[in-house]
């Protein structure tokens, strides 16, 4: 794993805060792009699906100046570096990094998946590496904000690899915030419960749309908080699960595994 401080080349500076948002091509990322564009932020949108990304950027800003699409694979070091370089080339600086791109093992058990560690690469390694790329300039300027999209599955264990990534991302976010206290750079974790997106398309649960998370991201940008869980009704559930782990066992088995056709098995 390698990262270097990328110097800003000459670029037309903007007075607007510049947000680099990963996973912008669908779900929570797309909703966050819409929300932040409405609020007047300058945006660098990243994801692999170039056509969807470009169409979104064009819809949000027909001028092409304030919202740009930069197709990128966040698991690839060269792609990450090119993404940051493109953002700097266009806007001259990055004020906010939103690490939203994420995947899960969608079907079946993670141990049956041919490459389960991709979940760690996208959900945990990529946010850490992107942070390493943008942090030196933020620290030098004495301002900046890293927003990581965690999950309720990072508090209440559900799916081995997904929870490993989101517990890890929570630890990274909360620790990094402390490491940066006094530096002018702040860190927030936004932890959603189930919301409607491509990731949850197969889950048969009542879910709000991704706008609830987009609004939470916008809120922490205005008033930074170490951590916030949305929708709010998951907050007591997380504490209940921690106080009564057996209740968590029951909830996860009944409400999540079965809803995903993920029926517990006896000995193999
Ligand atoms: N939906 C929920 O209920 C829920 C709950 C808790 C947390 N979350 C978290 O919210 C975040 C967004 O998920 P979502 O629900 O909006 O899911 P989604 O609709 O599947 O969106 C995932 C996004 O991540 C991008 N992505 C995946 N792999 C990538 C890669 N290698 N490089 C670049 N981009 C990549 C996808 O874009 P491309 O395919 O175009 O690359 C897509 O834009 C994730 O971190 C997820 O873990 C979701």
TrEMBL record:
| InterPro entries (UniProt xref) | NAD(P)-bd_dom_sf, Sc_DH/Rdtase_CS, SDR_fam
Family annotation (SUPFAM superfamilies):
NAD(P)-binding Rossmann-fold domains
Q: Which GO terms describe its cellular component?
A: membrane
Q: Which UniProt keywords apply?
A: Oxidoreductase
Q: A Pfam family matched by this chain, by name?
A: adh_short
- Would the keyword Signal be found if you checked this record's keyword annotation? no
The molecular function GO annotations come to: oxidoreductase activity
Give the Gene3D superfamilies listed for this entry: NAD(P)-binding Rossmann-like Domain
Family, per the entry?
Answer: Belongs to the short-chain dehydrogenases/reductases (SDR) family.
Q: What is this protein called?
A: SDR family NAD(P)-dependent oxidoreductase
